[in-house]
Amino acid sequence: MPYRDAGGSSDAPAESDDLADLIDTLAPGRNDLVALIQAYFDESISGDYLCVAGYVFTKGKVKHLDAEWRKMLRQYRLPYFRMSACAHGNSPFDKLSPANRDKVARKAIALICEFAALGIAATVNQRQYEENVPNPYGFQGPYEFCAWNCLMGVRRWIEEEGRKGDVAYVFEAGHASQSKANRLMQQLFESDKLRARYRYVSHTFVDKVKVRPVQTADVIAWQWLKDRKNEAEGRPRRKDLEALLSVRHLYRHIDVDQHAEVTRQILAEASGEQSP
Fold it and tell me: Is 276 domain-assigned?
């Protein structure tokens, strides 16, 4: 199944230079953002379904996104934005009225659409995957499989649009899958060929509360996982997801039972890329 392509105040966040500090970590000695592309990823899990998703930012747009996101959080006296908590009125969004939760969600989506260059998302049924997909390559569990799809989306976008610059890959710290993501990235980018193909300069894990751009990945991960469940249950797509998809996204709902051959082809591509 090919990628589908859609067009294009204790509660208040502390003032900080976390993003500027992160840039130094991602690309030591590089103070400009012009040549550094940043890809932020998060995951969402519900029942058997897993989604890995995120956003890619170019040039100085991540800097502007961070500033506007901080203003949004300050306006609604929120320490961070989390899509699931906003949608269900859980802490810290329980202090907001339903109308204000709707407003802040709309604002978050509008900022993503304004500043993101690309959205990427992949979902899979973990039980189906583990029951039907062999593991001959040593790392392709459900999480690694979805993350690998996202990395291929970044590479495709770079190649199709002739993008210049290196890519720093950023994941939320502390998730159960952090060790899997770290192992995947280390194994892949031991290869000079793959480092060049994916323009890899670094990968790191960050506190989602402090490094606000990774909160955008939380939005698409939750939305895309919800879309997979809605699709499976015959419900229509959410209007807020439709709004997000006004920016270009590469996305896959991977049904292992229905697309076993395609799944094998994706794994074969992954294996081929790792070969000398």
Answer: no
In order, the DSSP letters of the chain are -PPEEE----SSPPP--HHHHHHHHHSTT---STTEEEEEEEEEEETTEEEEEEEEE-TTHHHHHHHHHHHHHHHTT-S---HHHHHHT-TTGGGS-HHHHHHHHHHHHHHHHHH-SEEEEEEEEHHHHHHH---TTS--SHHHHHHHHHHHHHHHHHHHHT--SEEEEEEETT-TTHHHHHHHHHHHTTSHHHHHHTTEEEEEEE-TTTSTHHHHHHHHHHHHHHHHHHHHTTPPPPHHHHHHTTS-EEEEEE-TTT-HHHHHHHHHHHHHHH--
Q: Count structural domains, the chain.
A: 1
- In this prediction the pTM is 0.85
Per-residue pLDDT of the chain (276 residues; tens, 9 = 90+): 444 444 442 233 333 456 655 655 565 555 554 468 999 999 999 999 999 999 999 878 999 999 999 999 999 999 999 999 999 999 999 999 999 999 999 999 999 999 999 999 999 999 888 887 766 555 568 888 888 889 999 999 999 998 888 999 999 887 778 888 888 888 888 888 889 989 999 999 999 888 999 999 999 999 999 999 999 899 999 999 999 999 999 988 887 776 566 666 666 666 555 544
CATH code at position 198? 3.30.420.10
